[in-house]
Design brief:
CATH topology of the largest domain: Aminopeptidase
CATH class of the largest domain: Alpha Beta
CATH superfamily of the largest domain: Zn peptidases
Helix content: 25-40%
Subunit structure: Homodimer.
Number of strands: 14
Pfam families: Peptidase_M20
Largest sheet: 9 strands, mixed
Strand content: 15-25%
Family: Belongs to the peptidase M20 family.
Order of helices and strands: HHHEEEHEHHEHEEHEEEHEEHEHEH
Cofactor: Mn(2+); Zn(2+)
Protein name: Allantoate deiminase
Radius of gyration: 24 Å
Number of helices: 12
Shape: elongated
Length: 422
């Protein structure tokens, strides 16, 4: 009879529990998982994953960016390739599912396909990207940029906390960083890229849905604001004469919160504050803070930026404070391909789940992969939306739902190409 979707999902759960122990931490339950790029933990994870891939009938290779790529090959060597996968690396003391779940669920799908001797008219590549989080070298999206052909060789000079360069780490890992440009997928070779990821938010759980379809990956911008006032004795300067930089910062925080709560598909935060001279009885002279805005629609984000900066300047001028402002980071939003969104929605519906479309407020490897091909994405619900934390949790039964949805998606993709599944 062959492996069922439920059994494939259960196997994915076993794999998740096993690979969570491949970590710098001793106890992933209490301390979380720490697995960084080009480390012995990375090597051990690839050894495990590579073995499971071979057991599922895949050929396996590691490229010069330390990505692991398993291929479930089509009978046609010239066929195009559907790419699935996610990142194997974590943040320090992260959860057991962020990233790695998106490697193991496609692998469970291949296990199902191989067990049922189902051939596809396209190659199916499952990728464990080397470094999405950027924890060790601040090299965010290293692996996906390598495959998409957008990796900047300048990044090879980045150093970790011990002074080891990314170039040296890759060499020690057995890679040849000078040949990274050779590892991109050829133009036109990829059918598309599909990633499965925990939602990292509470919406699916709140709606009682195991799975959702992602419409876009958010655009992000970050600002550094320095508010200048005048220090003085907190007991002798009258309130109406004060130029208190921290009071100005409080106004900024309120303006960010108000704008984001009244603008659809916009979120933001003041995440970091430094106050000077930071004395208990001294009026603050300078306060530095960061402002981050995110939206899946760049037009919404840019309009919000202009509105916010105008309101901040007016508020600080009224307090007789001076503002210095710098845009320190900007990443445009990436829209998932409408055709892939529709096909994923149909696959979700075919498996008895009401399709729910939502945008991703976090960045993912699709930000880089969109330079190569169309991208699509599925979210799996997670408990209370907790992520990047040891308390990250999912429902084991949801894994079999994803395997079934991915199978339906692949079958429909094969049929749509007028190349029926064997």
């Amino acid at each position: 009879m062959g492996v069922t979707y439920e059994q494939a999902g259960a196997l994915a759960w076993q794999w998740l529990e096993q690979i969570a122990r491949v970590s710098e931490t001793e106890d992933p339950e209490s301390e979380g998982v720490t697995r960084l790029c080009a480390t012995r933990e990375h090597r051990a994870a690839l050894d495990l994953l590579g073995g499971w891939m071979r057991d599922a009938g895949m050929t396996v290779r590691v490229d010069n960016g330390a990505n692991l790529i398993g291929r479930y090959a089509s009978a046609d060597p010239d066929a195009r390739t559907l790419i699935m996968g996610s990142h194997q690396d974590t943040v320090p003391h992260g959860g057991k599912y962020d990233g790695i779940m998106g490697v193991l669920l496609p692998l469970a799908l291949v296990h199902y396909l191989n067990d049922h001797a189902i051939a596809l008219p396209f190659h199916l590549d499952v990728v464990a990207f080397s470094d999405e989080e950027g924890t060790r070298f601040s090299s965010t999206l290293l692996g996906s940029k390598v495959l998409a052909g957008s990796f900047d060789p300048v990044m090879l000079g980045a150093e970790d906390d011990a002074g080891v360069t990314l170039r040296q780490a890759l060499l020690d890992f057995g890679c040849d960083p000078e040949r990274i440009a050779d590892d991109r997928y050829p133009p036109g070779a990829a059918l598309g890229f599909v990633e499965v990821h925990i939602e990292q938010g509470p919406q699916l759980e709140a709606e009682g849905l195991p799975i959702g379809v992602v419409s876009a990956i958010t655009g992000i911008e970050r600002h550094k604001l320095s508010i200048h006032g005048l220090a003085g004795h907190a007991g002798t300067v009258p309130m109406h004469l004060r130029q208190d930089a921290l009071v100005g910062a409080a106004r900024v925080i309120g303006l960010v919160d108000e704008l984001c709560k009244t603008t659809d598909e916009l979120v933001g935060v003041v995440g970091k504050i430094d106050n000077s001279p930071n004395g208990v009885n001294v009026i603050p002279q300078r306060t530095d803070l960061t402002v981050e805005l995110r939206s899946p629609e760049d037009a919404t984000r840019l309009a919000a930026r202009n509105t916010l900066l105008a309101r901040i300047e007016a508020a600080l001028a009224a307090l007789d404070l001076r503002l210095e402002h710098q845009l320190i980071y900007e990443q445009a939003a990436v829209q998932c391909a409408p055709a892939l969104v529709a096909q994923l929605e149909a696959a979700v519906a075919a498996n008895g789940v009401a399709p729910r479309t939502l945008f991703s407020g976090a960045g993912h490897d699709g930000l880089a992969m969109q330079a190569l091909c169309d991208i699509g994405m599925l979210f799996l619900r997670c408990a209370r939306g907790v992520s990047h934390h040891p308390d990250e949790a999912i429902e084991p039964d949801d894994l079999s739902v994803v395997v079934a949805v991915l199978a339906s998606f692949c079958m429909a993709l094969a049929e749509s190409a007028d190349q029926p599944v064997a």
